[in-house]
């Protein structure tokens, strides 16, 4: 039974207040209500943000995607600085299912800020992707991060289909609130289980646009990283990768191959789950998302949590992670995003204290959503085929020290598309500016007809966390549609 | 034609001088000449050594192994401190073929000192293996490092057989010079191509000891790391590992499998060499000996060297290497060991300036030796079988981020022995003293009947360089014959 959407009401009230202050700057061709809501979403200042360098506007707030059920999705737009405009718009999605794009993408990967261990202050990420584009983070589906539903049952029957359709509805309404992005070059990107979300949402946008001469959502392509793509090939590749990296025994490798490869990745059989449990025990207390980096120390919330520490395709929990970067980032974000003043600044959880939909602690990932995930097709490769044929730009990247969706999984899945090769596997280089002789192999790449595969050397599951500089190089090349730079290639 | 052995003569002269000073301390049961030569070999002080902490005696010098040819092998003994005695004796050998144990084992891996970038000063390695044993480094065969021959043709027809026999001769004479090590527990260890040397020398010692009730060389076992073992299985595993780590294309993987797996690793066919060249080009300018660490920067001697930068089984040059550790260590050692005062302190190159055998610059590895390597059996697994049956302790370890002799190569080679499993694959832990809750996975291990396999997580080809603390834990467990510690295992 749909409850009342307190949040939407509260936002509406806020809008009225802000509107009075902001109406003077409304553009002539701008829908008045869109403008008012957009200005209500403007982030004036984030608690703890640095005094210098924040030269880009930000907006965040809710877009209702189902009035009846009371489902509203939370977004956070980090625009490019004025001198970089007009730049493309890029939607970023994290996976899980159940994990927040605010927690991961925005706060420890490609977002403008990173959170200090005090859980209170922020610093600028030198390699923030809004140096190259306007980045729109979305917590999806409802029940994830700050996104909520007033219909409790929604939390127990989420699945790929509704996630895609709600996300599309979000986009349609968001473009009304931000009409300046209509017709702008638009890309969708994400990682991990967003390997499902990204192509699925891209497909809807593509199909709705079909026959429209000048579509509002001017989708040019998509990019996914360490992406769940095709259960059979992903699993074959994952098990092979585990064995080759010395994480599991010969016997368990054989057992996994015998028990799992024809299962659904998201809904494995009990027999397959038992094989996974064996593999997890053999693997030990490493960070499967980054197998060579230290874990956040054992006294952390992760090991004392009620959630069993499992690495299985169902439940790619990114909260066990492991030292140039801080392996305890989730803890800092959990503190920061539960601060009332932070939520106020973000226009998030606006009914807090009023008995509203989000009367629970903000969490990086939702166990409820994850444990009750419904429909999940075994493959999205048919969507790749459709969208390659449509001429969309499609890039797939992989951090090569991830054991959750390892490189070998991605190689097998992409190979299954049988695409002709345009440029064979080659090392790409990170040529530091003004030091072109100091080139390092950033990873490897192969250009297929219709798809570009890029690996990032030494990066785990969250590529922009582990290799921020290389990730920004990757992002810029994707936006330009240019292959990754070979040796002595152009400096980015 | 054998030339005159200037070095031996010079040593003899030195002995007379030193003998006069040292004769007072000669032991009663000690052969007088052995004692004199030993005292002549005592290292008084190394140039640039730290003022504190050097509480262990060291000796170095030459042992002639063939008077006719004028072949003399250089050794460096780093004894354990007095309070750790009596401790076992461990011979350490580096591979190549052609690479110096002084350059690698002693100076950047398990040895007592590391060389600073000034090429002049030393600091103590906190995890030096002489904390647990008396370590004997040997430059082998003649022509490698400080070891020399007066018969130039020796440099062009070296091979496994003579290397083993010369090394045995070295040992026999060395024990006469150091009789306090007679009957002492003795182990042989090494890495890379020493995967051949170590079992081969162990086999000779074992066979010569057979039937002797109380052998002088009291060989208890051997240990090898990232070891060349069995060409067929090594190559199958190497190619699979390269592909799984994203270093090569699908096409090159297939080409290597079709072109190389039945070849000799040391003497590949032109067809196989062409496939290797393709793989090397695809791999790019990474450090194959440690695929996730930076290379010593591109202006280094490695890229300007006349030696083509190849990664092939023939020519496992450890001089291309790549940041908690210094990736340019070979450069520092090349400076340090070419200093005349260092050579004097080490009693090395004693005929320098006299037109003696070593009238060339000391180098970490010898191209001549490497490029002209002779006999090299395709497998040493038959020796494993013989020595397992003999009850010797045999440990095999592998740094799991090495692409030269990767973990997968070692797994396939060991699997080919078909040994029964005693303890299945499990993660071993590095429990830091007094902080047992801060345990990290050091790697994985499997105990077979007669052989223990241990991996070291995140270590490259030179395990003690990349993971010095974990390497010392490994070494101590090997010496005790105790399996690697499981979670909550005993602190070392």
Automatic annotation (TrEMBL), chains A, B:
Any one GO biological process: proteolysis
InterPro entries assigned to the protein according to its UniProt record, in alphabetical order: AB_hydrolase_fold, Peptidase_S10, Ser_caboxypep_his_AS, Ser_caboxypep_ser_AS
Reaction catalysis annotation: Preferential release of a C-terminal arginine or lysine residue
Leading EC class: hydrolase
Stretch forming the signal peptide: 1-28
Swiss-Prot/TrEMBL keywords: Carboxypeptidase, Disulfide bond, Glycoprotein, Hydrolase, Protease, Signal, Zymogen
Assigned EC number: 3.4.16.-
Gene3D superfamilies for this protein: 3.40.50.11320, 6.10.250.940, alpha/beta hydrolase (3.40.50.1820)
Domain of life the protein comes from: Eukaryota
Coiled coil region boundaries: none
PROSITE patterns, alphabetized: CARBOXYPEPT_SER_HIS, CARBOXYPEPT_SER_SER
Gene Ontology molecular functions: serine-type carboxypeptidase activity
Oligomeric form and interacting partners: Carboxypeptidase II is a dimer, where each monomer is composed of two chains linked by a disulfide bond.
Family note: Belongs to the peptidase S10 family.
Protein name: Carboxypeptidase
Organism classification: Eukaryota, Viridiplantae, Streptophyta, Embryophyta, Tracheophyta
């Amino acid at each position: 039974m749909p409850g009342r959407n307190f949040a939407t009401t509260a936002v509406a009230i806020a809008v009225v207040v802000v509107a009075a202050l902001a109406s003077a700057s409304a553009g002539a061709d701008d829908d008045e209500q869109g403008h008012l809501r957009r200005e209500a979403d403007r982030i004036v200042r984030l608690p703890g943000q640095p005094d210098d360098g924040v030269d880009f506007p930000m907006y965040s707030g809710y877009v209702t995607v189902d009035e009846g059920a009371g489902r509203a999705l939370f977004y956070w737009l980090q625009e490019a600085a004025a001198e970089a405009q007009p730049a493309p718009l890029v939607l970023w999605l994290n996976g899980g299912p159940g994990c927040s794009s605010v927690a991961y993408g925005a706060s420890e990967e490609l977002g403008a800020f990173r959170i200090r261990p005090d859980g209170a202050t922020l610093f600028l990420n030198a390699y923030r992707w809004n140096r190259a584009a306007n980045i729109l983070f979305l917590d999806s589906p409802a029940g994830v991060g700050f996104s909520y539903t007033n219909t409790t049952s929604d939390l127990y029957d989420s699945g790929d289909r509704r996630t895609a359709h709600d996300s599309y509805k979000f986009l349609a309404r968001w473009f009304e609130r931000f009409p300046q992005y209509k017709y702008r070059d638009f890309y969708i990107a994400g990682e991990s289980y967003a390997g499902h979300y990204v192509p699925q949402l891209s497909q809807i946008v593509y199909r709705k646009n079909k026959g429209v001469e000048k579509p509002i959502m001017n989708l040019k392509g998509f990019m996914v990283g360490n992406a769940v793509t095709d259960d059979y090939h992903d699993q074959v590749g994952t098990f092979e990768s585990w064995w080759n990296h010395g994480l599991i025994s010969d016997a368990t490798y054989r057992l996994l191959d015998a028990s799992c490869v024809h299962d659904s990745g998201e809904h494995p059989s009990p027999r397959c789950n038992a094989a996974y449990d064996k593999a997890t025990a053999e693997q030990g207390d490493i960070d499967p998302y980054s197998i060579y980096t230290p874990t956040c120390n054992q006294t952390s919330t992760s090991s004392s949590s009620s959630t069993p520490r499992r690495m299985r395709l169902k439940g790619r929990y990114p909260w066990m992670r492991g030292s140039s970067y801080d392996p305890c980032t989730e803890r800092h974000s959990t503190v920061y995003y539960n601060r009332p003043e932070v939520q106020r600044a973000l226009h998030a959880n606006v009914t807090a204290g009023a008995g509203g939909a989000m009367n629970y602690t903000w969490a990086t990932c939702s166990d409820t959503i994850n444990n009750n995930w419904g429909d999940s097709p075994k493959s999205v490769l048919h969507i790749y085929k459709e969208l390659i044929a449509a001429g969309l730009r499609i890039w797939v990247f992989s951090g090569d020290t991830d054991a959750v969706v390892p490189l070998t999984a991605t190689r097998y899945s992409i190979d299954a598309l049988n695409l002709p090769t345009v440029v064979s596997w080659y090392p790409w280089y990170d040529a530091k500016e003004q030091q072109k002789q100091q080139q390092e192999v950033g990873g490897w790449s192969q250009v297929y007809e219709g798809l570009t595969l890029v690996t990032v050397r030494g990066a785990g599951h969250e590529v922009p966390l582990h290799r921020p500089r290389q990730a920004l190089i990757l992002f810029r090349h994707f936006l330009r549609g240019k292959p990754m730079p070979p040796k002595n290639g152009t400096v980015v």
